[in-house]
């Protein structure tokens, strides 16, 4: 694996901090990588390492996630406005936009809104037709605290999710407690607005695209993944032996699928 470097940087948008990781040389081909709910930009560290110095992987902590500040708005317009501001700030030229789940929805809307800014798309287990559910799949977050006096108390309060969030908890300013890398209520608000019909923005762009689907996905049925590929020009489909959390369960297979797609551009 090629060694790579990552810098933590930030951009201020309307008084909010948008934090992002910038991997690789500024001369590398630009790839914008967007995480899903309950995650952050660092979830693409392994992919950045696999792609090496040829690629500059820009992985923001989207609003309300990781080291980025909370926002009042978790609509598509809000998320895409942050991405537009980041691209305008960095001016990397057309990017390959890669997104998992929430991030996949956001990159396809970005491509529809700014086709000249997106050279290619990779959606990772992202459903473009996601029926509304009540309660939603993240309803269990309603009982989570955002902060706790100790790291151990916060991990325990998260129940089965505790081991996953434990390594990424943040100390509160001043060191007086710990916080989650996402706000439970913000995440519920954001997740609720992901549900719906996103076929129109998916079909609005015609750049090359790759759909990655987990065979045991809880989110993207195989039939819909096949339709996403067949109904959109220049779009291919790869199925991996995972559930929804593709890059966590098969990082090597995921990186290989992305590398092979990038080689065709």
Q: Which structural class fits the helix and strand makeup?
A: alpha/beta
Spatial gap, N to C terminus: 22 Å
Spatial extent as radius of gyration:
18 Å
* Fold-level CATH name: Rossmann fold
Query: Oligomerization state of this entry?
Result: single chain
Specify the CATH class: Alpha Beta
> How many helices in DSSP terms?
10
User: How would you sum up the major sheet?
Assistant: 8 strands, mixed
Along the chain, the helix and strand elements come as: EEEHEHEHEEEHHEEHEHEHEHH
> What is the H level of CATH, i.e. the homologous superfamily?
Alpha/Beta hydrolase fold, catalytic domain
Structurally, the number of domains stands at 1
How much of the sequence is in beta strands?
15-25%
Tell me the overall shape. Answer: globular
Uncertain segments of ≥5 residues (pLDDT<50)? Answer: none
Q: What is the typical, i.e. mean, pLDDT?
A: 95
Helix content: 25-40%
Strand order of the largest sheet: 1-2-4-3-5-6-12-13
What is the number of E strands?
Answer: 13
The CATH architecture term is 3-Layer(aba) Sandwich
Fold and architecture overview:
Strand 3 (29-34), helix 1 (45-51) and strand 4 form a beta-alpha-beta unit. Helix 1 crosses helix 10 and helix 2 (76-90) crosses helix 3. This protein is globular. It has one domain (6-129, 195-262): Alpha/Beta hydrolase fold, catalytic domain (Rossmann fold), CATH 3.40.50. The model has no long low-confidence stretch (mean pLDDT 95). The chain has 265 residues and is of the alpha/beta class. The protein contains 10 helices and 13 strands. The longest helix is centred in the first third of the chain and has 15 residues, at 76-90.
């Amino acid at each position: 694996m090629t060694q790579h470097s990552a810098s933590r940087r930030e951009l201020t948008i309307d008084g909010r901090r948008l934090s992002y990781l910038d991997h690789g040389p500024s001369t590398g081909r630009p790839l914008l990588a967007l995480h899903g709910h309950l995650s952050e930009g660092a979830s693409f560290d392994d992919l950045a390492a696999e792609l090496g110095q040829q690629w500059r992987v820009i992985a923001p902590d989207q609003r309300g996630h990781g080291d980025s500040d909370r926002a009042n708005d978790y609509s598509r317009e809000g998320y895409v406005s942050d991405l537009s501001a980041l691209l305008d700030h960095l001016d990397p030229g057309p990017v390959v936009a890669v997104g998992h789940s929430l991030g996949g929805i956001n990159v396809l809307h970005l491509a529809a809104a700014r086709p000249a800014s997106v050279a290619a798309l990779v959606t990772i287990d992202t459903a473009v037709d996601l029926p509304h559910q009540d309660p939603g799949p993240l309803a269990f977050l309603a009982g989570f605290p955002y902060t706790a006096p100790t790291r151990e108390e916060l991990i325990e309060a998260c129940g089965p999710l505790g081991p996953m969030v434990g390594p990424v908890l943040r100390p509160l300013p001043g060191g007086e407690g710990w916080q989650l890398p996402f706000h439970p209520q913000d995440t519920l608000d954001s997740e609720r607005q992901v549900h719906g019909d996103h076929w129109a923005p998916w079909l609005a762009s015609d750049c090359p695209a790759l759909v990655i689907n987990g065979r045991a996905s809880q989110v993207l049925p195989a039939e819909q993944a096949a339709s996403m590929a067949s109904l959109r020009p220049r779009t291919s489909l790869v199925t991996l032996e995972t559930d929804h959390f593709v890059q966590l369960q098969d990082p090597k297979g995921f990186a290989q699928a992305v590398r092979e797609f990038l080689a065709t551009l």
